[in-house]
Structures are given as C-alpha cells and as structure tokens.
Amino acid sequence: MSDDDKGGGKLEWDDLEEEGYSAFQTIRAIVLFIIVAGVIAGAIGLFSTSPWMRVSHDCSIFCVIEMDVREFFS
C-alpha cells in the first residue's frame, strides 16, 4: 500500500500488483470454472439424452442404473 494514500486503507491496482496479485489470475479462474462447468453439463446432457446411451427407447443409462440398484437391494 502506498503511504501517501489517505483513503482509509483503500487498495489501488498498483498496490495489488506490488503485493503479488494479478487481475489475470481472477480472469483465468473464471474462465477455468466456465470450462469445467461446461464439460460437466455436456457430459450430463450426453448421458441423459444420447440415443447410444439408451438401453431401450424409453430407458436411459440412469434408468438402467436405477434398475440395477433396485435389483441389488431386493
């Protein structure tokens, strides 16, 4: 922090960069989160709607997992 700043401890961008903070780190974290969330959402979409992931016309992979769990516990 600069000593001549009388803003009551208010940080400025130059002060943050001197302390090792970079605005690029925040942008990188946000972009990484968006990419990971998109991959997860895409995988869930494929598992639940893709025809090659279905056992029959009206039973998706989640239906098969549910039937296997019910069969295991019965």
Structure in a nutshell:
By secondary structure, the chain is an all-alpha fold. The protein has helices at 13-18, 23-49, 61-73.
Using brief descriptors, characterize the structure shown:
74 residues, elongated, 3 helices, mainly alpha, single chain
Account of the 3D structure:
This protein is mainly α and 74 residues long. 62% of the residues lie in helices and 0% in strands. The protein contains 3 helices and no strands. It has helices at 13-18, 23-49, 61-73. The longest helix is centred in the middle third of the chain and has 27 residues, at 23-49.
Question: What's the number of extended β-strand segments?
Answer: 0
Cα gyration radius (Å): 25 Å
User: Count the helices. How many?
Assistant: 3
The quaternary structure here is single chain
Q: Biggest sheet, in brief? A: none
Q: Name the beta content range.
A: under 5%
Distance between the termini: 66 Å
* Average pLDDT, all residues: 76
Shape: elongated
Helix content: 55-70%
What class do helices, strands and sheet pairing give? mainly alpha
Instruction: Encode the helix/strand succession as letters.
Output: HHH
Q: Low-confidence parts lasting 5 or more residues at pLDDT below 50?
A: none
Secondary structure layout:
Blueprint: H1 13-18, H2 23-49, H3 61-73
